[in-house]
Amino acid sequence: MYLLPAKRAKYPRAFKWDDNMMHHFPKDFTLPVCPLLTMWTYWVCGDEIAKYPPFRILIASELEDVKTKRTLSSLRFVMLEIESRVLAQGAWVNNPSPRDAAEMLERLLSHVVNHLDEYLNTFSYHWTVSRACKAGLSRRGLEYLAARDPNWVDGDDAALVAVKKNFLHVLQWLNECYPDRTSWGNRQARCFMNIAAEKGHFEILQWLHTNRNEGCTTFALNIAASKGNLPMVQWLHQNRNEKCTKQAMDDAAENGHLAVVEWLHRNRSEGCSEIAMDVSAANGHLDVLRFLHENRREGCTSAALTMAATRGHLEVVKWLCTNRTEGQPATALCAAAESGHLAVTEYLYEVVRGRQRRSESTIRKAARSAMEAGHAAVAEQLEQKLKRQRLE
Predict the structure, then answer these.
(1) Model pLDDT, residue 103
(2) 73 and 144, same domain (yes or no)
(3) Domain housing 75
(4) Number of CB atoms found within 10 A of residue 78's CB
(5) Do the beta carbons of residue 61 and residue 7 sit within 8 Å?
(6) Contact by Cβ (8 Å): 212, 185
(7) Please, which residues bridge with residue 16 across strands?
(8) Residue 356: which region, alpha, beta or left (left: phi > 0; alpha: psi -120 to 50)?
(9) What is the DSSP annotation of 159-197?
(10) Is 291 part of a structural domain of the chain?
(11) Which contiguous run of DSSP H or E holds residue 339?
């Protein structure tokens, strides 16, 4: 039994079919309330249609008319899939109230409701297997379309899109049934394992490792470290031989992933570069900065202090001035003033004054930079400090 309101119809029409015949019922046709999945009726049609409580209900908003059993069979295929999802989640309800039914269905089947039109369109002849793969249609749907068009082609991007969108079941189906019609990329172009690592699709990464032989490059471990995905970093370390580069620790430090930095330090030999401390300082990751200072020998450059001052990371600026010698406080002072960071400017003023005998020109330059950048309060504060300094 199906409920199929026609497009632009003012009232729904009820149909049933058997023995290649389809029967139309009048609007006031009623059936006994079915205890199973009555909620589907309430949710899709609302309270006013509760008198149409068939076991399966389908809204076909894109259909002008339904005249052939072939068309209805396609719709039935869709509803069977929806029904199987409901039953798999234990949605077996005895006469729920409309409100309870709506809440339960919203929780269990919101994805079905939101994409029902997409399912219906999928089974039209405007769809292809390749397009269905890219849309993440279920395996049953893919099999249906492939059976309808056994000579389908144009699958070059199907697996690529499946990797990007995390459609593992699509990859499995393509690999099992049509591996020769599918483009699987390579290490030089469209490397699927690299893409999976970049997207954070761990399960797909593992599946590609087990079922395909295209492999990956150092980019996979580098990008996993950059994104702070420690489980993926550890798995790649244990299962792949492509290794990584210094960029792995550099990028992990830049993004503040201390756990990844620590793990790479203890388990990998590539190390890092001066960039690691520079970018961790620039982004205000003091914990990472301290770890690198205490455990690594690469050090940093003067850019660490300048960038930290430019971005207003006061605690990082204090730590660098106390623990490192690479920075140039005068340059950092001008950078902080130009960026309008008053607290950092005041701290660096004291540092510059304590370290430079002739600090007046530096302070005047910083005040001018602040004024030109529109930070009048910072410029005024420096001018006042400069006046008091002259009186001392």
Answers:
(1) 54
(2) no
(3) 1-126
(4) 22
(5) yes
(6) no
(7) 23
(8) beta
(9) HHHHHHHT-HHHHHHHHHH-GGGS----SSSS-HHHHHH
(10) no
(11) helix 329-339
Give the model confidence (pLDDT) of 122-179 as tens digits. 455 567 888 889 888 888 778 878 887 888 877 778 999 999 999 999 999 999 999 9
State how far the Cα of 57 lies from the Cα of 104, in Å rounded to an integer. Answer: 16
Counting the structural domains of the chain, the total is 3
Mean pLDDT of the chain: 77
pLDDT over 70, % of the chain: 67
Kindly state the helix (H) or strand (E) to which residue 54 belongs, with its residue range: none
Total residues found in the chain within this entry:
392
For residue 278, tell me if it sits in a domain.
Answer: no
Would you state the pLDDT for residue 13? 38
Reading the block at residue 41, the tokens are 């009726």
Q: Provide mean pLDDT across the span 288-316.
A: 97
Query: Which of the two residues, 113 and 339, has the higher pLDDT score?
Result: 339
Q: What are the backbone angles phi and psi of residue 15, rounded to the nearest 5°?
A: -130, 155
The answer on 148 and 122 residing in a single domain is no
Q: Which two tokens stand for residue 26?
A: 């009048």
What does the block give as tokens for 121?
Answer: 């369109």
Rounded CA gap, 216 and 381, in Å?
Answer: 55
Residue 378 CA to residue 375 CA, distance in Å, equals: 6
Q: In the block, which residue shows the tokens 């602040």?
A: 370
Which of 177, 196, 211 is a domain's end point? 211
Please state, in angstroms and as integers, the Cα–Cα distance from residue 280 to each residue in 30, 256, 316, 348, following that order.
70, 7, 9, 20
What does 237-258 look like in DSSP terms, one character per residue? HHH-S----THHHHHHHHTT-H
pLDDT for the residue 203: 98
Contact present, 312 and 344 (Cβ < 8 Å):
yes
Q: What pLDDT digit, counting tens, does each position of 13-55 carry?
A: 333 333 333 344 344 434 333 333 333 433 333 333 333 333 3
CB 370 within 8 A of CB 378: yes
Q: What separation in angstroms does the CA of 262 have from each of 283, 291, 389?
A: 18, 8, 45
CA distance 177 to 166: 19
